[in-house]
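During the no-cost extension, the postdoctoral fellow (Dr. R.K.) reprocessed legacy sequence entries with the updated structure-token encoder. One reprocessed record is reproduced below for audit purposes.
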Amino acid sequence: MAQAYIVDALRSPTGKRKGSLSEIHAIDLGAHVLKALVARNVIPAEDYDDVIFGCVDTIGSQAGDIARTSWLAAGLPLTVPGTTVDRQCGSSQQALHFAAQAVMSGTQDVVAVGGVQTMTQIPISSAMLAGQPLGFADPFSGSVGWRARFGQQPVNQFYAAQRIADHWQISREQMEAFALQSHERALAAIASGRFAREIVSCQGLAVDETPRHSSLAKMAELQPVDPQFPSITAAVSSQTCDASAALLVVSEAALKRYDLTPRARIHHLTVLGDDPIWHLTAPIAATRRALAKSGLSMGDIDRVEINEAFASVVMAWAKELDYDPARTNVNGGAIALGHPLGATGARLMTTLLNELECSGGRYGLQTMCEGGGQANVTIIERL
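Re-encoded structure tokens follow.
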């Protein structure tokens, strides 16, 4: 089978809600990373075969096939097409999968892939939840087929996060300790310049502005997001933010044609569905499937980036896979760095690749929970 390679990966800083990036038009935020990606590499812009971007809630400033409009707003050739993917939180990870599959099939050689989300301007699931309470409050209740299969069980991310915490016996105090560690790791990574290679400054912002100096005492004072979910507070949940990220995926033929040095090879791609009521548990089963199909074990994996949608999601995954927390989200996760929905998958992969290079690791695994009870898993091999 033909191979797909990652040649470059970069991202904007994560801008906090109503922060430094909040007034940038979503198209321009996407254009920012695409323009930088093309400028950093020798491939002529007209030779790109496609642009594949992830974005959730493609309304308002995010409407109109933002992969295509971002490319054009960057001043890049009219002849290069673009398409936008929505697999909920895993949108830009799926965009990477589609790009890799296009290259592996032999139908494309050079693909720009990534994602963008301006959550200050377009709050989470605005299109689906107009007039609904926070937290995916049963948007499917009007479906006869859905009710026949799942009854009146709530489709709610906070319900799922609490259910996971209860099932895996993870206390609020344990989740707060995990969340504090996420912030501390992110702040340490910023202080040491760990993200310098992957971040392209934007609007004068050169570092992530989402990590916070906090304490267990401060976290303990927070009220739950809802009395029904006593362990779930803002402290143990991912932050909304504004960000974009992009990667360059190419074929072996492109490596030779443009004399490129690959940074990683796409080793394995998996996507799997799970129970949509549990909503956030699919990374467990998807990781197991990826390992079985790739012939690897968790012992072979040097670094993991798993999205910190909620602390309980990552902690349950780690318990089930028996993986070393010291090698998981080592530079912090979405609790500290934010979860810009459609951009998160590309952000995680950018950070994973950079961390493998910094640490000298060989294999990296990325996974994340996604709306509807789904998960993608990507395994890369550093070269």
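Residues 127-136 have pLDDT under 50 and may be disordered. The longest strand covers residues 241-251. The remaining legacy entries will be reprocessed before the final report is submitted.
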